[in-house]
Amino acid sequence: MQLPHSAQILRPAKPRxxxxxxxxxxxxxxxxxxxxxxxxxxxxxxxxFWALHQPQRVSIGVAFVLGVVMxxxxxxxxxxxxxxxxxxxxxxxxxxxxxxxxxxGSQQALLLLLPFVTASALQWLAGWLSSHILPSPLSLLAPVxxxxxxxxxxxxxxxxxxxxxxxxxxxPL
Length: 173
What we know:
The chain is mainly alpha-helical. It has a domain at 41-159. It contains eight helices and no strands. The protein is elongated. 27% of the residues are buried. It is found in: Cell membrane. The chain crosses the membrane at residues 58-88, 109-126, 138-159.
């Protein structure tokens, strides 16, 4: 009998896996896809996941450092991503217990839509204040795509932590 994800016990995440997933997300963000305004921020998604599930290892300090790295990678205003990442991670860790109460990724994704929009709005505002150039209206799709990708990202990052069923659990009654 296969237990649902909410009933399974998770093994602790290995620090190497956390770092590797964050580095892979940063590498994806650094891909030269041109000026695609609706590209979802996978670094933000990965950071949000780890801040939600491993708050003792991934906290606001990690969010700030990752945000500064993203600012350098995207050649944007220094602190633009860092501000958005810190605000989002603060919000996620503040309501962590409520978010984890919902067992499925789609339910959590609906709750994360507002903070994703807020983080994007902070980035747009900081960019607009520094350059007086309004972002493309297509950039409004990025938080929506991040919300749609949340269940997939959650499943991918939870997979190595799921405990395998014991012989007793596999045995029919």
